[in-house]
Amino acid sequence: MASLRFALILGLTLCAVLPLGACSRDKAESKAPPALPPVPVSVATVEQKTMALQLQAIGTVEAFAVVSVRAQVGGELQRVHFKEGQEVRKGDVLFTIDPRPLEATLAQAQANLARDTGLVQQARATLERDRARVLQSRAALARDQAQARRADAEAKRRLAAVYLNSGLFGSRPIVST
User: Which of 19, 32, 87, 117 has the smallest CB count inside 10 Å?
Assistant: First the structure.
């Protein structure tokens, strides 16, 4: 394999060098820049060791996934928590939004909740008071109805005694006890 590579490199080198020798040197003044001095070359013994892999290339980079990021709430950005090109995962904090408007909205909602809770408690107290009044009214109605029945019974008893004592129903007087 190495001899095949060597033969291929040698053949390509000869193909590149031979046409250069065919060029004429008739012109004394050439427009080509003067040749650079030869580069010094040093020789070293072969060693086997691990090398860090470093690639330098010119090209374009393309993301393997493109996602759109939409905020769940609006607001002014205070901080960005990633750098362009950085890999991010689901759940990573990407931005910090100014919390002051959101905190004010939360405080307003909590105040409305407290007010509404107070109104509910007040309505429950009014309901209990009105229920107690209804029960009192029902008790008073039952008492008044009982008094009316007792008064009606007493009136009927007295009327019967008057009729009996008057002799319309017989000759014996009835004495009430």
Answer: 32
Helix spans in the chain (H): 2-21, 100-165
CA distance 125 to 118: 11
Work out the mean pLDDT of the chain and round it to a whole number.
83
Give the model confidence (pLDDT) of 51-74 as tens digits. Answer: 888 888 888 878 777 778 787 888
Distance from C-alpha of 136 to C-alpha of 14, rounded to nearest angstrom: 124
**Nearest Cα residue to 99 out of 80, 73, 133, 120:** 73
Show Cβ contacts of residue 78 under 8 Å, excluding neighbours closer than 6 positions.
96, 97, 98
Cβ-contact 98, 76 below 8 angstroms: yes
Q: What letter would DSSP give residue 95?
A: E
